[in-house]
Amino acid sequence: MKPDIHPHYRTVVFHDTSVNEFFKVGSTIKTDREIELDGVSYPYITLDVSSKSHPYYTGKQKTFSNEGSTARFRQRFAGFLNAKRG
């Protein structure tokens, strides 16, 4: 490998502020902030959403039936659509 062309790979702490969870992950992301965990200083990045807080991963995601959505759309705009055709 050529020297000085590759990003510095190191352990970084990502903090999901919505659920106050910390993740130590290898990354090349650049940051000026640091945090001390377990007596060791790590680069620090804050997150709004992670696997601990995203509805898809937590099982709190709402699902909607496409048929129901289509039916509601047609019911809501039936008069408008029929007026355009006629």
Question: What are its keywords?
Answer:
elongated, 86 residues, alpha+beta, 2 helices, four-stranded mixed β-sheet, 4 strands
Would you give an account of this structure?
It is built from two helices and four strands, in the order ββββαα. The chain has 86 residues and is of the alpha+beta class. The N and C termini lie far apart (70 Å). It has a four-stranded mixed beta sheet, with no helix packed on it.
Pairing-aware structural class of the strands and helices? alpha+beta
Strand order of the largest sheet: 2-1-4-3
Which stretches are low in confidence, meaning pLDDT under 50 for 5 or more residues running?
none
- Report the order of strands and helices: EEEEHH
Give the radius of gyration: 24 Å
The separation of the N and C termini measures 70 Å
- Work out the helix count: 2
Q: Could you give the count of β-strands? A: 4
Mean pLDDT: 83
| Overall helicity | 25-40%
